[in-house]
Design goal:
The complex is a heterodimer.
Chain A lengths: L21 H14 L7 H14 L3 H13 L4 H21 L1 H11 L2
Chain B lengths: L14 H9 L11 H6 L13 E5 L25 H13 L4 E5 L9 H11 L3 E6 L2 H5 L6 H7 L3 E5 L5 H8 L3 H14 L11 E5 L10 H16 L6 E3 L6 H9 L3 H10 L14 E4 L5 E2 L2 H5 L16 H4 L27
Parallel strand pairs in B: 1-2, 1-7, 2-3, 3-4, 4-5, 5-6
Antiparallel strand pairs in B: 7-8
Helix pairs in contact in B: 3-4
The chains are: A mainly alpha, B alpha/beta.
Chain lengths: 111, 350
């Protein structure tokens, strides 16, 4: 029995998802490749966005992939950490902003 | 400053041990294909030498730096230095070869006591592109080297220098404490005499090697980032950036094994294997000459002690016709030159 849910070697098998649904798999990978091309945003900026989202999504495969990608692009560890804090701030803010809902509910129910 | 593998008596100072590592393990048990089999998939084995274009001469392994990734295992403790007699033999070849590029490397080539004499003599021959690979810090290492920018200019030398990053942290980690500041100063001095300036014919190119177990990014994008950062932060100009993949030999192999990155790195190289690069790898148009005059397909093969597969083994017996068409000596380190956009001493190959 597999001892962990995540295996680093599985990242290399990502492309195999097309085997069980070729058309949708290929469409996804075509879209994915297009998204990360140089555009109005540079590929470097997109890599940092991906790294931040990888952390907010807590996807170990994506963290592995976009840390490596960042290093390859010459992105410094300080820049990577700064991007992560953007993700953390939004994640934290998203939690806290729901506090308004809690406050509304309390104010409505309490005498 | 760390010592060379040779000085430390490391088992990896032995090229045979390096070649064993590169042929055993994941390559012996079939987890990964050998380079020979991989290029055979597209009918590119055996790899053959074409017409000679680049003559690369390693004038010695002595260096003022001890970089963590150095494939030469160079350092102050290396004493292998090309003699004037071997240089004279090289000059005879330079005069008669059709190669358009002469490329001097090391170690720090400037530390060879006959370096200036050799440059003066070689520059008279009139090769189209005369390269000296300077590590930059040598220019600031000692008063006797301070005039190197002027000396290079006088002989119209094309300077190619290593610069792993535009930040101090990444540079010093790979090349040693203080290297970044000295390199910046040296680049400014090269700029001051005209090297690397826009529209200047005094060529100044930089080489980027990743500072760790990862592959280089896209050469054009990295060049853009380097140019912006060096100009904004230090008012430094240069012409082109060459991205070079670290090959898994010598000190970089030692690092990969010690950091438990060796297998993942080999997987990454093979995953990025690009068959389109094979026809343009530098060993097919380059000849590498060692400090003691022996001939190799490339500087990496020189360090692995894999001499050319030819009757001609030494510069004293040089024969271009016999060397052309020779079968290139390969092992698994060659995957470093065929990953992604390919890699050579002149950067990407595609």
């Amino acid at each position: 029995m597999q001892k962990t849910y995540y295996d680093p070697a599985d990242l290399k098998k990502f492309g195999k998802i097309t085997e069980w649904s070729e058309e949708l798999g290929n469409k996804f990978f075509d879209y994915y490749a297009k998204v990360f091309e140089e555009g109005k945003l540079s590929a470097r900026e997109k890599s940092l966005i991906a790294l931040a989202v990888a952390h907010t999504e807590q996807c170990p495969y994506c963290i592995d992939a976009y840390t490596q990608d960042g290093l390859q692009r010459g992105i410094t560890k300080e820049e990577m950490m700064e991007a992560l804090h953007v993700g953390a701030a939004i994640k934290g803010g998203a939690t806290l902003v729901h506090g308004v809902q809690m406050m509304n509910k309390v104010n409505k129910l309490e005498m | 400053m760390i010592k060379s593998l040779h000085k430390r008596n490391s088992e990896l100072a032995n090229s045979k041990r390096q070649l064993e590592i590169l042929s055993n393990g994941i390559f012996q048990n079939g987890d990964l294909p050998k380079f020979k089999d991989k290029i055979a998939e597209t009918g590119q084995f055996p790899l053959k030498a074409k017409k000679l274009e680049i003559l690369q001469i390693n004038v010695g392994y002595m260096c003022n730096q001890v970089c963590e990734h150095c494939h030469v295992d160079a350092g102050p403790d290396r004493k292998e230095i090309m003699t004037r007699q071997t240089m004279q033999q090289c000059l005879e070849v330079i005069k008669n070869t059709g190669a358009h590029t002469l490329d001097l490397t090391g170690g720090a080539p400037e530390m060879n006591p006959d370096f200036r004499w050799f440059v003066e003599e070689a520059s008279k021959v009139g090769v189209k592109d005369f390269i000296v690979r300077s590590n930059l810090t040598i220019i600031r290492a000692n008063k006797k080297y301070y005039d190197l920018p002027e000396f290079f200019k006088k002989h119209n030398v094309h300077v190619i220098s290593s610069m792993p990053h535009w930040t101090r942290g990444k540079t010093d980690k790979q090349r040693g404490t203080g290297v970044f500041d000295k390199s910046i100063k040296a680049l400014q001095e090269l700029n001051a005499v005209g090297y690397g300036m826009p529209d200047s014919s005094l060529r100044l190119d930089l080489v980027y090697n990743p500072s760790g177990a990862f592959l280089p990014g896209n050469q054009a994008s990295m060049e853009k980032d380097f140019k912006k950062a060096l100009l904004d932060d230090f008012e430094i100009n240069f012409h082109n950036l060459f991205t070079i993949t670290n090959l898994p030999i010598s000190r970089f192999l030692d690092y990969l094994i010690a950091s438990e990155n060796y297998e993942d790195y080999m997987y990454a190289l093979i995953e990025a294997y690009n068959p389109q690069t094979v026809k343009s790898v530098m060993c097919t148009n380059t000849l590498s000459i060692s400090w003691d005059g022996y001939l190799y397909d490339c500087d990496f093969n020189q360090m692995l002690n894999l001499p050319v597969n030819s009757k001609v083994k030494h510069i004293s017996d040089y024969n271009e016709e016999l060397l052309e068409g020779r079968t290139i000596m390969i092992s698994q380190h060659c995957y470093g030159c065929t990953a992604g956009a390919g890699s050579s001493c002149q950067g990407s190959v595609t």
